[in-house]
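Issue: ligand-bound run for nicotinamide-adenine-dinucleotide - logging full I/O for the record.

Environment: standard queue, default settings, no custom constraints.

Inputs:
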Amino acid sequence: MEKTDNILQVGVLGCGPIAQFAHLEACQKAPNVKLYAVCDQAENLAKKMGNFYGAEKVYTDYGEMLADPSLDAVIVATSDPFHLNAALQAILARKHVLVEKPLGTDLEEAIALGEEVTRSGLHMQVGHMKRFDPGIVSAKQFIRKDLGTIVAYKGWYADSTHRYDMTDSTQPLPHTSTISKKPSIDPKADLEKYYMLAHGSHLLDTARFLAGPISSIHARLKREGDMYCWFMDTVFESGANGHLDLTVAVRMDWHEGFHLYGTEGSVLGKIYNPWYFKTSEVTCFSAKQGEYRQVLDNKAHFFKNQLGAFAQSILTGDPNHGSNLDDGIASIKAMLAIHKSVVKGERIWLDTIKQGVL
Ligand SMILES: NC(=O)c1ccc[n+]([C@@H]2O[C@H](COP(=O)([O-])OP(=O)(O)OC[C@H]3O[C@@H](n4cnc5c(N)ncnc54)[C@H](O)[C@@H]3O)[C@@H](O)[C@H]2O)c1
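Outputs:
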């Protein structure tokens, strides 16, 4: 991969599965990025990944990596409860940050980080890489220009019982280490929380990206055996009707997508399991033209596209359509609202959510 002269020197914090499946390769492939450093408390993992991907520096201590003056930016690829603190440390060390989704688990800490980022003038982005799926980008462009007023948005995200059988065929098995840093509480100890953070954050970000901010949610959770199914009657700030469905796990193939009804057209999107790196199948119908349109775009390494846009913004000042801090905070509020709504059985307005830990 030929690299540009104007290049961002990136360090990846965490050499676990998401770094191995997505970010290290994204650093290799994005033309305006150099994988300058990797850091993992697990020295064996850090050395293995650093050597394989040709990082100039290998660290086991995050503070030492941040003190390196040649480092421009950090990708935070650690477990969810570590995101906010790792991002804050990077901002205080004057490094730009791309943090994995969800932005964090504590709303007040996320808001405080937001204030620090604003003060710093640094660039911070949340890793909702679906915003860089060429199919979803085509939907966004159509909605902006040709859909008219959004009347309704339906979004669904259903993980599949067959998912790991399928991804095991396409992904290499991740390298692991017995000395990796793990949160004190196993994130999978509470599956209701875990599924919302892991999957609900994507469902919400895609909905907000395409249909705008959410004002209120009335959520119901049905549990049956090992299945968790949230149906969420959602109202967008625009007044559009919304319905969101998060189900883990359906007895069928991966089932994710969206449907918008507008006054001038409609959009129907099928999103594939991300690890197929396949552009979503998005069909846009324009009432004016009386035609359906669909893009075919194979540049579907969402993580590379995301990182390239992140680097471009820092190097040239160009804005990008990635998920910013406000988007990350809005997702945390929405997830807290969903939980509150399930517990209380009531509609919850997001602007009433001021604090909470997921
Ligand atoms: N975008 C997506 O679709 C997607 C998919 C899967 C996972 N994720 C996200 O990726 C994140 C990471 O997932 P994972 O499964 O790779 O996590 P993991 O916990 O298995 O691996 C993280 C690694 O980071 C290291 N680490 C953590 N804190 C450190 C510190 N302070 N200093 C040095 N090393 C440190 C650990 O030792 C570990 O090896 C999660 O937030 C998850 O939600 C995103």
